[in-house]
UniProtKB/TrEMBL annotation:
Ranges for domain Ribosomal protein eL8/eL30/eS12/Gadd45: 15-100
Any single Pfam family the record assigns to this protein: Ribosomal_L7Ae
Protein name per its UniProtKB record: Ribosomal L7Ae/L30e/S12e/Gadd45 family protein
Domain of life, per lineage: Bacteria
Length: 112
């Protein structure tokens, strides 16, 4: 039973990362601290994902910005996983700008 649960979590994680990759290929996602911050301030971001490895300062900055603008924020994955999902080396933050893809990813993230 433990092996089955571990596989299920891996499948959920892969599904979330594939949504992020799909959003990137559709040019509906931005990555990197500066680009994500710009997207949030312009109110284009529908979902923000910050790596679990992010520093406390980065976490607080994105938490405050997203709470103020009522944008869903999740802490998920490592910097390498987020970077691989968007085709880059290493990313600490990502924002999805498409409402449909953001909703699908948020549903999966809330189940985890």
């Amino acid at each position: 039973m433990i092996v089955l649960k571990r596989r299920w979590k891996d499948l959920q994680k892969d599904k979330i990362l594939s949504y992020l990759g799909f959003a990137t290929r559709a040019r509906k996602a931005v990555s990197g601290e500066f680009s994500v911050e710009k997207s949030i301030k312009q109110r284009k971001a529908k979902l923000v994902i910050v790596s679990e490895e992010a520093s406390q300062n980065t976490r607080k900055k994105f938490t405050d910005m997203c709470e103020f603008r009522k944008i869903p924020l999740y802490f998920f994955g490592t910097g390498e996983e987020l970077g691989r999902a968007c085709g880059k080396d290493f990313r600490i933050s990502m924002a999805v700008e498409d409402e449909g893809l953001a909703g699908a990813a948020a549903r999966e993230l809330s189940q985890q």
